[in-house]
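**User:** Here is a favour to ask of a fellow structure person. Please take any protein you like and set down a full record of it. No explanation is needed for now; the record alone will do.

**Assistant:**
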Amino acid sequence: MRVIAAILLLVQVASACTDGSGSDSPIVVDAGARLDALGERWMTTPATITYRTTQRKPGEATSPHQCLRQLVGDAIGVHSDLRRGLRICSGVGEMRLVWDPPDRWRMDQAAPGSRLTYLSTQDRSVRCQVARLPAPRCVAAETSGPFGSLLDPPALSVDRIGAVVTVGAQRTVAGIRSDCFTVEGGPAGAVHTVEWCYSPDGLLLFLDDTVEGGRVVTAEATEVRRGVADGEFELATA
């Protein structure tokens, strides 16, 4: 009887590991469906995340070297000019996202030469210039800024590009093992590529949104805290 029971158990386990069609092939999870599921979880998960960012606008120099040539010329005689140019041309900055979907979020962006805050609640959406001012100067915001795609479900980009989602290699971001996905498409010379990496519980830890020869936006998490504080959405204005 013990032998028969063991055989029956092995049959049940083998059946559970097949796709139910009589084939021995393992069940394969669709990349697009998995990305959608993680994106939906991100749209319902409060978190406070600091990202290391890079940004290049369409029409700007496509490399730090080219940017330096445009900014300070071929002959650089003053070291301070070179250091300043390197900071500006690196495009590297930092952005802190306080994310409380669906109605509240805040982005504090710091990059060479600029500091901005974007704040959105049920009552208002504003953009605030905070550099070299005694208090933030805020105006109504018409967009969510260059990193607004962090706030969008990935399906928007997938539909816009119109290509199949592929699974990338897993990454460890901010000490968290993450699942990564890519969609790529568009005409030659203007290929649009977006890559996302999510934690298993749906935190968006990496985003790269690049148009060949044009816009480049990258955000990679460096610090992660689940949850938000209500005080984050109070902003004193001048």
Observations:
- Residues 2-16 form the longest helix (15 residues).
- DSSP finds five helices and twelve strands in the chain.
